[in-house]
Amino acid sequence: MASSQKSIALVGSGNWGSAIAGHIGEKIRDLKGQYNERLLMWCKEETLDDGRKLTEVINKEHENVKYLPDKKIPENVIAEPDLIKAVKDADILVFVIPHQFVKETCEKLKDKIKKDAFALTLVKGFYVDEKTNELQLVSEIITKTLNIPCLSMMGANIANEVAEKVFCEATIGSRDDKHSETVRELIDTPVFRLRFYPDVEIIEMLGALKNVIAMLAGFSEGLEAGFNTRAAVLRLGFREMINFCRLYKKESTPDIYLESCGIADLIASSLGGRNYNGAKKKAETNKSLKDIEKEDLNGQSLQGPGTAKEAYQFLEGKKLLDQFPLFRDAHLICEDKIKPKVFLENLSKHPEFDRKQ
Ligand SMILES: NC(=O)c1ccc[n+]([C@@H]2O[C@H](COP(=O)([O-])OP(=O)(O)OC[C@H]3O[C@@H](n4cnc5c(N)ncnc54)[C@H](O)[C@@H]3O)[C@@H](O)[C@H]2O)c1
Ligand SMILES: O=P(O)(O)OC[C@H](O)CO
User: Fold this and answer.
1) What are the CA-CA distances from residue 140 to residues 27, 135, 149, 176, 189 (Å)?
2) Which of 210, 280, 281, 282 is catalytic?
3) Residues in binding site for NAD(+)
4) Which end of the chain has the smaller Cβ count within 10 Å, N or C?
5) CB count, 10 Å around CB of 33?
């Protein structure tokens, strides 16, 4: 292996982690030698019901039978159960774990990675500090803990479809041309097109926030709301997403909300994402989202309820809950404090209808 070859590691191997591993694995194999073909994918070890280790199965059958069943992963993707071994020689670290595990994982990586590495986060979610009410994005946690730059990639990217090579696009948040070029080389293909913007934080915020509004789309469907009402939920939800982003950071690209990371991801997620499906089932059955996650997702994680909670806390701290009734009600529904139908009843009082043009 030539020493100039760059190595890539994936921090995560769930549903999206395995799909993007397949995509990047094929891309670097086809680039023939520009990158180290061995793509190490950190896989938190677990024993399957039949007693086999998940990493052993992935490396033997080239399929993540638990998190992305029935989709083959190229043989140059190697599942590695040891987190440090997976990342220590990597020049590029792709973070793709459920957001609630980012802090603990970054802590384990401190001083264990190459100093001149950079990261790309595919994680949709953020943290809000309970004491200070400070909102922290995943890219910020990665940069602060590991002292490396972090780009973001968000968009309408339902993992199972990406694994089937169904056309999609994504938005990359990057302020660095050199890193952008590397990401383009690693990910951009005719079936996975990329667009680049400097709005790293807004791109990431949108990816997190859409999970909450997609749950509302699911509740609406489960309650058999009319199409007009469901469209209103999406429009008002999108308006709240934009207002939320602006509370955190002013966009540098006015049209950023119209990119894949914004309107397109909201649409895709509200048509068929896991958060949408889980919420639909909740409205139909009155079960808790935790129970639905356990029943239907076999270890995959609904990111919407956690983000709804963080968003609620952030808005409450700023005394702005009344300005964001959809985010407020989404959290209260997730916590079983109000019935799903209440958010539909509240629509007509949305502050948007008092807003001057
Ligand atoms: N699945 C999708 O279609 C999709 C698409 C785009 C973005 N995303 C985002 O990507 C991120 C990862 O999603 P996913 O679908 O790959 O995950 P997932 O929902 O499949 O979650 C399961 C993964 O979480 C891991 N995990 C469990 N406990 C852990 C711990 N303590 N530490 C670290 N990892 C642990 C499991 O090992 C498993 O790999 C999420 O933020 C999600 O919103 C998902
Ligand atoms: O299945 P969800 O709801 O986690 O959404 C998946 C992706 O974020 C869609 O882009």
Assistant:
1) 28, 10, 9, 16, 28
2) 210
3) 12-17, 101, 159, 274, 303
4) C
5) 12
pLDDT greater than 50 at residue 2: no
* Atom 44 in ligand 1: residue holding the nearest Cα: 16
Our measurement of the distance from residue 101's CA atom to the centroid of its chain's CA atoms, rounded to an integer in Å, reads 12
Atom 8 (ligand 1): residue with closest C-alpha?
16
Strands 92-95 and 118-121: parallel
Q: What confidence tens digit (pLDDT) does each residue in 155-195 have?
A: 999 999 999 999 999 999 999 999 999 999 999 999 999 99
Q: What are the pLDDT digits (tens) for 223-233?
A: 999 999 999 99
Active-site residue flag, 210: yes
Give yes or no on whether 8-198 and 202-354 have one common fold.
Answer: no
pLDDT grade for 4, boundaries at 50, 70 and 90: confident
Boundaries of every domain in the chain: 8-198, 202-354
Q: What is the CATH number of domain 202-354?
A: 1.10.1040.10
Question: Percentage of the chain surpassing pLDDT 70?
Answer: 99
123 lines ligand 1 (CB under 6 A): yes
The phi, psi pair for 152, rounded to 5°, reads -125, 145
